[in-house]
Amino acid sequence: MIEFRIDRRSGTATYQQIVDQAKHALRMGILRPGDRLPTAKEVVAATAINPNTVLKAYRELEREGLVEGKRGLGTFVSRSLAMPRAAAEGPLRDELVHWVGRAQAAGLAREDVEALVKATLDENYKGIGDR
């Protein structure tokens, strides 16, 4: 089961952090169709956030067709975002691992690498959307 981590300094809304982490887990195959998300009560106990924040995140995931709430049972994954296994374990990932290693060796901090990757994605995916 996924455990949400909240970064109060990130500048990203708390509910959006939950949405983003759930989507990441779906893309990486950590969450699969049929899996149950933690209850709002469980997330609140682990993160000390408002239950309405959790419910807002789950509603957003439901609106996007990624999860489905089942009254009295919980919220369940209804659709995967997992990339093809070839992409997750293939040569592109190997190149990325190598590149990240080179970035570390060059003295770049994680935040520097994230900023560089985000800027490159923004530049290359301009006008294409979130594909």
Protein model, in words:
- It is a single chain.
- With 131 residues, the protein is mainly alpha-helical.
- The chain folds into two domains: 14-77, Arc Repressor Mutant, subunit A (Orthogonal Bundle), CATH 1.10.10; 85-124.
- Helices cover 53% and strands 6% of the residues.
- It has a two-stranded antiparallel sheet with strand order 1-2.
- The longest helix has 15 residues, at 91-105.
- The model has no long low-confidence stretch (mean pLDDT 91).
* CATH fold category name of the largest domain: Arc Repressor Mutant, subunit A
Strand content: 5-15%
CATH architecture of the largest domain: Orthogonal Bundle
Count up the domains: 2
Unreliable runs = none
Helix proportion range: 40-55%
Amino-to-carboxy terminus distance: 26 Å
User: What is the tally of helical segments?
Assistant: 6
CATH homology group of the largest domain: Winged helix-like DNA-binding domain superfamily/Winged helix DNA-binding domain
Identify the strand order in the major beta sheet: 1-2
Mean pLDDT: 91
Per DSSP E runs of 2 or more residues, the count of β-strands stands at 2
